[in-house]
Request: fold
Amino acid sequence: MHKWLMALLALALSAACLTPGFGQAERVPGTSYATALELAPGEHSFNLERGDSHYFSVRLEKDDTLYLLLRSALNQDFDMALISPDREVIELSVRAAGFAERITYTAASSGLYYIVVFPFGPSSGAYSLIVSVSKPRVATVTTTVTALSYVTVTQRELRDVLVVMTRESIRTMTLTTEQKVERDFELLGWSVLSLAMIAVAALIRDGLVRSRFALEVRKEGEGKEATETG
Reply:
């Protein structure tokens, strides 16, 4: 009798662990936008009854790319729609029975997007929905620009000679910026060129003077010299 009670208790515990809602709530697809089940990236499996529609949601940041793949039995025909946060249809995938449905979309704005899975005709049964989100690549671009400037230097030599001249001076500026890399393309060369133009403009703005070279010799007491000459 004791062995029978232990066996029944073990069976009851096993059944309780398998029962939805025991320790972990069952994930149920929504039946409207308001009840849409939010999905994380990964593979999700559900069962769709004839005439029903399943509603899901996924959060995207601006420029995120969403990849959706819907698979079902070869003799079933399930279709899929992607809906914007404003509940407008963005993409539809309505391929024939036996073909997987696919949607790829790059978010124009951040928000909660909706995925609707629905059957065509009498189709029903199990399906899997694969969700993948790709973040945009960001590249750090460092540009070093060297510009030639001119600095006026005044110095006095001996007692009566004043030397004024302009000499060349080298200045270097380093600019660092982050740019999003277009998908399937590398950074374009004109991006680096534009940074160089910005650096040169900044150097000019700092008050660089135009190139000149002057040497002036001026003796003190010019009045006295003129008098002596007279």
About this structure: The first strand starts at residue 37 and ends at 38.
